[in-house]
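If you are new to this repository, start here. Below is one unmodified record pulled from the training split, so you can see the exact layout before writing a loader.
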Amino acid sequence: MKHILIAATALFSPLAAQALETTGANLDLSYGAFTEETDVSKLTLKGSAEVGFAPQFAVQADIATNAFGFTDIDGQNYALHAIFHASEDVSLGGFVGREDVESDDWTYAGLEIGQDFGRFNYEANFTNGDSDGIEVNNIGIRGGYAINGFTRIGARLDHVDVDFDANGVNFDLGDATRFGLTAEYTPTQGLMTYGELGTLDIDGLGSETYVKIGARVTFGALRGATFEQRGLQDLFPGL
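And here is the target side for that same chain:
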């Protein structure tokens, strides 16, 4: 049995190494804040890595940490995506994740799609999150247009609905809509800087303008991992 195990390990290790391939990864550092309340801010460090099992199938892992300026709260995000590359230009995915915000734990799951066509690209997703009876649903879409090989402009739109379930009775806690205009500049392959200017409209609280800047280092594929991160903390520029 010992010799069989040694032989099997020697046989399958090269095959496994060939079957598993890191196809892309990225590391981001960003800072966002509201323009009128600059202490309502968020500093984020996040990374994603994608491993391919075959030309059509891959798994993406996400990890992120957030520091919120106004409340002095820290939060973490962990997620896994199962990805099916339907073609060179279309990718479908499903994801599950967990977020830790101080003493509160959130779990979330959802579906996503991404497509490139010519100079245009977009991603769309539906996310459902839950914690102690509070349910959060988000529908998001973001897209961009490559002006040239260095510059891309685009936009993102997210709509968040929050409900609370108490003994089978559902209460609508309100909703929020985030809209942002984005710009990316890639001075050299593997490095991208980006910015976003937008508004966050929270039901009953009004609308606030925010700005966000960041830098991304990519490895492997030109865009790094296939999909953006889907954590619920990503939906809010600052807390």
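Two things worth knowing about this chain: Residues 1-18 have pLDDT under 50 and may be disordered. The helical segments are 2-19.
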